[in-house]
Design a protein that fits this description.
Layout: H1 3-33, H2 46-64, H3 76-80, H4 86-99, H5 103-106, H6 111-125, H7 139-155, H8 158-182, H9 189-205
Helix pairs in contact: 1-8, 7-8
Amino acid sequence: MTPSSDSLSSSLLLSRYGWAGCAGTLIAVTRNAGIVDAQGRIPKGRTNMAFLVDSVGTIIGSCLGTSTVTTYVESASGIVDGGRTGVVALVVGIWFALAVPFAPVISQIPDLATGPILVIVGASMLTTIEGFDWGSSNIEEALPAFITLMLIPLTFNIAYGIIAGTFFWIIIQILLMPVRLVKKEDPFVKFKLVGEEDMRVGQNQV
């Protein structure tokens, strides 16, 4: 591979990785905030703006040499306390700026002291799965969802969980194709449903 193709491959990989992590965080946080529509989707116009802000923040953070400036599920702690607008982010940013002189002292606080807070945040996010059908009749959807839920904490990364769950779902659908053919059903029915849903969401976002 040429240097240009290597750069392109790396850029595409990082963009898809970043998209998956951002999407998972946005879905969980917006549902926890109760600002999604009846179908559980982020309201029209807000999705693109959320991804745009995340992308711009990531680019600026990289140029400044900081850690990744992106959406984090820890935002749920602010939502639990009533935060719903960008004012919350501004207030948090101000407090972070004021805390910079105290960074050497704060950095001495062990992870063990802050870990329980993340457990509480994670527990508050589980309300987003209460309406999911975990029954045996929906096993082909429930298994990938379970894999996603388990791998997110085990890998310490939302994107890894989503990617693993997606691949597992694809494998299940491929294995079910012969079964659907025997039953004289469309073997690509679930793929078509996903495609139709993506098109419908895309039209709503225009």
